[in-house]
Design a protein that fits this description.
The structure is a single chain. By secondary structure, this protein is mainly β. The protein is built from one helix and 21 strands. The radius of gyration is 43 Å and the shape is elongated. The chain starts with 19 loop residues before the first helix and ends with a strand.
Length: 302
């Protein structure tokens, strides 16, 4: 009764610290909901779960210097350079190789491609030696290189740098030979032989006596034997033409097809206009002068 009324009541103070757990929980709920919404938008937002299709393969263009080398992908041959390879499985290492005629690996590279990636792979295809291609008409002639039989035409063989003698023989035909020189590693040469029938050996034999009665009927004055005084047909002067191209090509003179390079043939002496046509290359015209009894060589890079 002696205390004042204010002393009988206790003021209620609300603490701000009791509110922070609920605020943190609310913020966490908002963050999780926002993350789920963002993931739904990035995934496409539809019930089927489909999304924009991305390329699942890669491609590579294989080139070599010089071109025309054999290409192997993981040990499997796919053709010659330059070439385009598609549908390559991405994400794993793929081994690209270029090999020589004997199967030796000249250069190789391991490549791992990403989805949709396109890459140019350049390899060196310079062989450690030179290469010679030997052909003949007719074919299947035995080829002897520096005194050693190496096969039958047509064939290709790697050669060491230097001078080599090539000889071709075929039953019923005269033996032909030529000398070639490989100046440096990587040189490519071609030899083409046109074989001629071997002359028959003429043995001694008796000349049969002519027992046909002669015509003794006197001829009228002024009459002449139709065959008398007739000049023999003129002999056409010819020369040999050898044509080699890189890459190989078809050889035409006008509309007449002469063959595929390397080619060797006889043509009348004089001027000839040749057209060389290789797949994927523009046609090229070459004018050559054939000299009687001589060999004219034409080497062209298309």
């Amino acid at each position: 009764p002696s205390l004042p009324p204010a002393a009988l009541t206790t003021p209620i103070v609300r603490s701000r610290r009791a509110r922070w757990p609920w605020a943190a929980l609310a913020l966490a709920i908002v963050f999780v909901a926002s993350a789920l919404a963002l993931a739904l938008v990035l995934s496409g937002g539809d019930e089927s779960g489909t999304r924009t299709a991305l390329p699942r393969t890669a491609s590579a263009q294989i080139t070599s210097s010089p071109s025309g080398a054999r290409v192997f992908v993981d040990g499997v041959e796919h053709g010659v350079t330059p070439m385009q390879l598609s549908s390559i499985t991405p994400g794993r290492a793929v081994r690209f190789e270029v090999r020589s005629l004997n199967g030796d690996v000249l250069d190789a590279e391991d490549v791992s491609l990403a989805e949709g990636e396109r890459r140019v792979v350049s390899l060196s295809a310079t062989p450690p030696n030179g290469v010679v291609r030997v052909s003949s008409d007719p074919s299947s002639a035995v080829v002897t290189l520096d005194g050693e039989v190496i096969g039958a035409t047509p064939l290709e063989r790697e050669l060491a740098v230097g001078e080599h003698r090539v000889e071709v023989t075929l039953t019923g035909f005269a033996t032909e030979s030529d000398v070639l020189r490989i100046e440096r590693a990587g040189d490519r040469a071609s030899l083409s032989f046109r074989l001629r029938a071997a002359p028959r050996e003429a043995g001694p034999r008796e000349t049969p006596r002519d027992t046909t009665p002669r015509d003794t009927t006197p001829r009228e004055s002024g009459s002449r034997d139709p065959s008398a005084g007739r000049a023999p047909p003129p002999r056409t002067a010819t020369g040999t033409l050898r044509v080699t191209t890189t890459p190989w090509s078809e050889v035409f003179e006008g509309s007449r097809r002469l063959g595929e390079t390397p080619v060797q043939l006889e043509l009348p002496a004089g001027r000839h206009v040749l057209t060389l046509r290789a797949e994927g290359r523009p046609a090229r015209t070459e004018t050559v002068e054939i000299t009687e009894g001589e060999v004219t060589r034409v080497r062209v890079i298309l």
